[in-house]
Specification:
By secondary structure, the chain is an alpha/beta fold. The chain is built from seven helices and 17 strands. The strands form four sheets. A ten-stranded mixed β-sheet has the order 12-7-8-4-3-15-16-2-1-17, with helices on both faces. Strand 1 and strand 2 form a beta hairpin. Helix 3 packs across helix 4 and helix 5 packs across helix 6. The radius of gyration is 20 Å and the shape is globular. 35% of the residues are buried.
């Protein structure tokens, strides 16, 4: 029910509103999040679940969300937001671009990058555009120096560009500079681009069949690339708990805030089903279990 706080192994889940500082305080209990990854309710979408936020009011509504993230994010932490504008009258609405500008110009966040999540989408046809096959993920930080471990998401490649670095070999994709820098091609570990491929999935738990907003592979990529083992990752719009699952898989601590009690129940059952034997218990307001 609203106000509940649950312990799931070393992870935690709060049933409450992420726009309220008290919810963050109860969940983190003085700790800081090393990373925040979320897909918030899109404007005028998910109306049945969350009421729908009008496009003209979205930036104002978001102000409290970003303020709570900034107050609870580690100094070298990163904030990732997966959001894409829908269409009205045959064109994309602009509130997402207003949001990105507000993050930088009104609230002082650093706009690190715009990453692209690509996926295979169901068949479809629209009068003046093609079906959606990608969504952006906006990367923000509050400081210039962030935790970044790109080699954690590297992959073996026969077309890597190799250079000697401190007696070892490093590799990365940069074919255009191959001749200028005297680098040689060969087999090695290559760094990915800022395009992440991860197909959509479903979460089937109890009576709820939810098309997942994002698959586990998506937060998995960011958790590995932007944190270390034991770090805390938080999703303020937790939904079915995908970020918590990814955190558990990577030996991080997952934290979630979800306003709807029925979705909190899904998170608890999902974790119990995916990780048999994990201890799950409600924590009382006074801290007792």
């Amino acid at each position: 029910k609203p106000g509940d706080l649950w312990r799931i192994g070393e992870h935690r889940l709060a049933c409450g509103d992420c726009r309220e500082p008290e919810t963050w305080g109860r969940l983190l209990a003085g700790a800081k999040a090393n990373g925040v990854f979320t897909s918030p309710p899109y404007a005028e979408q998910r109306e049945e679940q969350y009421g729908g936020v009008p496009t003209a009011e979205y930036v104002e509504w978001w102000e409290a969300v970003q303020a709570n993230v900034k107050a609870n994010l580690a100094s070298d932490g990163s904030f990732f937001v997966n959001i894409k504008p829908h269409c009205e009258d045959g064109e994309r609405v602009l509130y997402v671009f207003d949001l990105v500008l507000a993050m930088r110009r009104l609230w002082g966040w650093r706009f690190i990058d715009e990453l692209c999540w690509t996926f295979v989408s169901p068949p479809g046809k629209w009068p003046n555009r093609f079906k959606n096959g990608f969504e952006p993920i906006y990367h923000f930080s509050s400081a210039a120096s962030i935790k970044f471990n790109p080699w954690n998401v590297s992959h073996e490649s026969d077309e890597a560009i190799i250079e000697s670095c401190g007696g070892g070999l490093q590799a990365y994709y940069d074919p255009t500079n191959k001749n200028e820098r005297g680098l040689v091609g060969g087999k090695g570990q290559a760094l990915p681009t800022n395009q992440i491929k991860a197909n959509l999935g479903e979460v089937n738990v109890g009576t709820l069949n939810q098309v997942a907003t994002f698959p586990v592979a998506l937060p998995d990529f960011f958790i590995r690339a932007y944190s270390d083992a034991g770090d805390v990752w938080l999703d303020p719009f937790c939904g079915s708990g995908t970020t918590i699952v990814a955190a558990h898989n990577n030996k991080r601590i997952g934290m979630g805030i979800e306003q709807k009690p029925e979705y909190c129940a899904v998170v608890l059952e999902r974790m119990a089903t995916a990780f048999p034997g994990i201890e799950i218990e409600r924590i009382a307001d006074d801290g007792r279990q």
